[in-house]
Amino acid sequence: MKIDVLLGLQWGDEGKGKIVDVLTPKYDIIARFQGGPNAGHTLEFNEIKHVLHTIPSGIFRENSINIIGNGVVIDPVILLEEIIKAEKIGAKIKSNLLISKKATLIMPTHRLLDHAYEKAKGNDKIGTTNKGIGPAYTDKIARMSLKIGDIFKNNFKEKYNIAKEYHLKLLKTFDYLEIEENYEKKWFEAIKLLEGYQCIDSEIFINNSILENKKILAEGAQGTMLDIDFGTYPFVTSSNTITCGVCSGLGVAPQKIGEVFGICKAYCTRVGSGPFPTKLTNETGKKMQDQGHEFGSTTGRPRDCGWLDLVALKYAIMIDGVTQLILTKVDVLNNFDIIKVGIAYKVNNEILDHFPYELNDDVEVVYKEFKGWNCELENCKSFVDLPIELKKYLQFIESETKVMVKYLSVGADRKQTIELNRNGKLTDEE
Ligand code: GDP
Ligand code: IMO
Ligand code: MG
Fold first, then answer.
1. What is the pTM of this model?
2. Nearest ligand, CA 39
3. Is 331 in the active site?
4. What φ, ψ does residue 341 adopt, rounded to 5°?
5. Could you confirm whether 41 is annotated as catalytic?
6. 140 lines ligand 1 (CB under 6 A)
7. Which residues contact 242 (CB under 8 A, 6 or more apart)?
């Protein structure tokens, strides 16, 4: 048995949480492999909306085991809040959530450092989620992190104090000591309570589960264009959001990777700073933002919107080895007369058909226009029911990316998902 992967192909918020929840009944185990509380994964069912930050999105399905892998950074305060909320609505956290002993702890001082570094950057700030992600991963690489497994050791407080002292020295050099009242107290209380949940050697559990033919889905956070190595550096997050992150973030070998579901919106969004070639600053962008309710699930910040960018998408598909595409928020484009797709970049009048290292404001995007479908998709249950204009839009994406679209998401609810079964063939012209 191999482990399947579902990850974002754009700048995050592609609808990963919703689709993982939809796919969970097909799997025994859902495992997060990177990121932390910078993620906000939304799922909706029975007219209730849930936002998860650290817990995998399979948690509301009774029979699924959910793993927070070694590649994840955990803020105990945020994780505990999530646990309490999920338990209130019936999720069986004590039995169904497993936490890697090798997962890294985000300390209260990491949050302060995140703020301090952003402030110091001034106009060049990244626009982070301010959850301490960058500083926590920095300490991991610098070999001075506290791990979940450390909370059971006698010298935990001692190790904590050594790291804290070091952080306070750094904060002084930034002239930034705006300590969050009570956060440290809440942090230790949360650590105490987390001791009561299942903390395990998750890489052993996962590899044994593969041998036992269990079906596993790895759930990504953020998106490929925010990857630390291949994203729009430095305006990225601090982890490998891409398929290779599954190997290091869960402890599975590359040959154990099966299907790679790449998820993207039918348009693009981005929150925080950094290049966004197809961004629309006009009424059309505003319309997408309104109709797609494009406001951050974690920070509430408005997300910039723009047309689908095939140059970036093809790059992401290449890096991730995507085998199936999932297109979300298709309904948001239901009443656009013209729909555009970015097919190439132009710099100094020269066409670039690949994603360049230097992506400055002088990049011009070449677009292809499509006629909008101008109708609701509520009654579409399969590929044949789709309006012809949408079929053409899909056909173009498939022919350009050479990957089939397997699912369409046409609303936030679990039920608003269309599986496009077409016997393995790319869409034919009608
Ligand atoms: P994630 O971070 O990739 O899990 O995505 P987010 O949850 O941050 O953002 C996606 C937003 O779009 C959430 O508010 C979802 O409830 C919503 N959503 C997901 N799929 C669809 C869809 O197909 N149509 C619409 N209209 N909303 C969707
Ligand atoms: P999900 O999993 C969208 C962005 C931030 C910022 C940059 C670095 O919900 O798709 P960080 O706090 O990670 O140091 O911020 O990355 N960012 C996200 N944008 N969705 C996310 O997660 C994000 N997580 C981080 O806005 O630009
Ligand atoms: Mg999100």
1. 0.96
2. 2
3. no
4. -135, 130
5. yes
6. no
7. 7, 224, 227, 229, 230, 319, 320
